[in-house]
Fold this protein.
Amino acid sequence: MSLVVKRYIPLAITFVMGIIMVIATYFLEIGSPARDATTLLTGTVDVIVATAGVIGLIVLLRHHGVNVSRRGKYWKYSTITIIGVITYLIVAVYGVAIQGRYLMVASEPVSWVYNQLYAHMDATIFSLLAFFIASAAYRAFRLRSLEASVLLLVGALMLLGRAPIGGVMWEGFPNIATWLLNVPNSAGMRAITIGIAIGAILLAIRQLMGVERGYLGPER
Amino acid sequence: MIYGINDGLVASFVLLIVVVAEGLIALYLSRTGRAHPKIRKIAGLEAIEEAVGRATEMGRPITYTTGLGGIRDQVYYQTIAGLNILGYTAELAAKYNARLIYFPYDPTIIPMAVDVMEQAYIRAGKSEAFNRDNIQYLGGDQFPWAFGVLGAMHREQSAANIHMGPFWAESLILSESGFYTGAIQIAGTANYHQIAFFVVAADYALIGEELMAAGAYLSKDPTSIGSLWGSDWAKITSIALTILAVLLTAAGVTALLDFFAL
Amino acid sequence: MSIGSISKIDRRYLYILLFIAVSIPLLSPLKLPIPIGEHAKRVYDLTESLTAGDIVIESFDFGPSTRPENYPQAKGHLFHARELGLKVVALAFWPSGAPIGEEALREVYGADFEHSSEYGQTVVYLGYVPGNEVGMQTFGDDTSTAKGTDHWGTSLTDLPLMRDECRSAEDFDLWAEWASGTPGEQQVIQFVQGRHGGPSAVPIVVGATAVSVSGMMNFYTSGQIYGILNGLAGAGEYEFMLNIGYGYPYEQGPSLDAQSLGHVLILAFIVLGNIGYLLTRSKGGKS
């Protein structure tokens, strides 16, 4: 594939689309036909993403299918993965078939799998975070330096201030926690947010100008 | 509309122009050699080579993730930054004959990742060593993906875990569990609510815009470094505006605040 | 057991202790009193200040993983809105939020609320609205363009609340965002509030997971977010205020007791780890 197709055309598309979106956001009136056209344009991205979902499915099935066929490492887990994917696909298609297009999200078979399996597994995995936080806090909150000590002190004050037991121990803990959130935390977050925003704008400018093109692929 | 600009976006547009202008001027000065800005060391990025070397010595792989982002969401810029660093890491891995396994979250990233890694292996002169099976898609849901990565880290006994991109609740799961595999951990995100977890649990952490600066930092390209220099100018402008707003408001002059409300 | 080993306890012992500490109050509640914080009070006061007939948007943007924190927040506020005679338009920009929103509405408005006489007049459920932040923007610009039907396929033109009253962000009197990630409160600020007159025109209250609250404080202090329910504690504070004002059942007590013991235990782990570390360091050893 020539360099024009692999590099210059994508860069040109990136530049033009970026300028169109900036103009649309700032200058085109909400509800105007031109604005609606750009909204439609961003909606086409959803079409591309939906197609990419199929790619992901194929990659997943291929990887695990090859593992199973070669009896590779942990091939039994790969078998479970493939069975799970195909089963849920069948359930989803069945749900569409019996309840119609608009109700795909709310179809009963899909809802059943979601509520009885997925929701519980998701909540279980998320609950493991509490244990990881405990071991991370035990391991990392050490009085190694002045900064680490300040981190430890603030962490302790927040732990006590944000749970009712802190208010039972001393009525000042909740007020201190609120102050820490409202003042120093807010100041730091504001600075980080502004910095990130500036960084994101200039990264976008580098992309629009074609300076940042590591994601575009091989040059030859 | 005010001055032809949609309501509520006038100040935003003016600030955008200011930031872009500063970035472009700094970029031009750097590119034409009229200025030679320097970037301070970013420990996390310097440590990547150390991590790859460690993986080579130990004969264990490197696991790499770019978080939960795709190309169409609001945090896509973090994913792009993560892919830039992936390219750098892949080139090092190719050079040192270390195995690099990448776990994309969003299927839209897969073709880009394949291209980025293939290009890196070609640059290192090891195109025949590139293996597409080292890009393992685990599914597009947060916790299934995170636990798939976690399982892979434990099974493969990775020597280095690198996480660069937008992360949410899985950040602590990955970094804390990764610690117990004995791997060196380098992580970076611009999601402010997860930065603290990476700082605490990873060996090296990139905070916020350090992630976005990675492309420029690693390539050492004067044009990219110039735009980073421009971002510093923009930050100084923000600080100046903040101080000015405080002083004016204290003096009872609300013109600047009224402008920002436009 | 040497001194150094205090700072290197096997994490599995920590996990067991944490499990026990969290389980005990769930089985036998401690009934700790709950202090009402400023952030939750502002959510309550702002909702109280609305008048009957005002339109509230309830956005269920979370999944089952954060349900223990977000669900009681959202359900309490729905109850509050109903008690005040507010008109509720509920929706979700997360697919996983749609079934949860439906469940909350059934608990507050009745198991068969979509067939009740008040449906379409004082409450509507749009379900999942696709498009993430673009969907939010479109919804703020024109509610019928974002999604043409409700959660069960009924056209919005057949629902008086959506047809005649709630047509764009100009008609919103309050946006209650129940969020645990993206799209969430920042996207509402950017794509709805910022485009339609700012905080005074579209006030926002947020119920969020505790971990994400620190990042939204700059929006709170600038007034873009009026009030925040901070995680499980925020949900408990709100339920407590509703219990006093409306007799709403205060159900978060055992969970907050469990959270309290969990926090104290983690603090104890930190102290233990530091004792071992400092003692080891003072003896010239490595930690």
Q: What stands out?
A: The two ends of chain C are 15 Å apart (CA to CA). The mean pLDDT of chain C is 92.
